[in-house]
Amino acid sequence: MTKRKETLDLGVVLERREAANPWIDHSWHAVAVIVGAAPLDPLGPWRRLTEGEGWVQFHAGTLPLELFRRETEGYKVILSQNPPRLFVVLRQVEDPESPHDLAPFLVTACPYEAQDYLDVGDDLVEAVTMPEAVAAFVMAYCDEHHVEEVFHKRKRKPHDPRKVGFGRRRDAAATGNGRGAG
Predict the structure, then answer these.
(1) How far is the CA of 140 from the CAs of 49, 107, 165, in angstroms?
(2) Global pTM?
(3) Residues 10 and 58 sit within 8 Å (Cβ to Cβ)
(4) 86 within 8 A of 65, measured Cβ to Cβ
(5) What angle do CA 106, 88, 81 make, to 5 degrees?
(6) How high is the mean pLDDT in each 10-residue block of the chain (182 residues)?
(7) Which class for 86: exposed (0-12), middle (13-18), buried (19 or more C-beta within 10 A)?
(8) Residue ranges per structural domain of the chain
């Protein structure tokens, strides 16, 4: 029996960049993922990776990339892009004791799932380049599990004006009760 889902742990790299803005002093962006990263709780202390003038990058947590059979169409769409991308969902941290104002919440290879998080509007969704090892992992999963769905155009039925349907009211005389319902 084949597995319904596969997982691959990925480290999320976040960059804190100083902002020349009167309302905010910095901004956060997902910039990469690390294949084979050590486990790291996104809500705990982060590991500083590199820095420059006005910016610093952190390994901000390790999350599983989960692949599901029902989402292979989305994976194939994203693999057809040049370059393919992963989507990192960042969520505000509600705990006032936390050292972070936001943290990585999810990594997905499905653009439709990422769009769902964007539509809600509570989270920040960032696209990062998919490493070649991850692309190979996703492609192998699609090769094993993707089933092409055949499009079936429905046939239209001819209109029968004698039938009651949406938007039509029954004739009160035809029902016999004078209220228009049978």
Answers:
(1) 31, 18, 49
(2) 0.77
(3) no
(4) yes
(5) 125
(6) 80 93 88 95 94 95 95 93 96 86 94 92 93 96 81 76 64 52 50
(7) buried
(8) 5-145
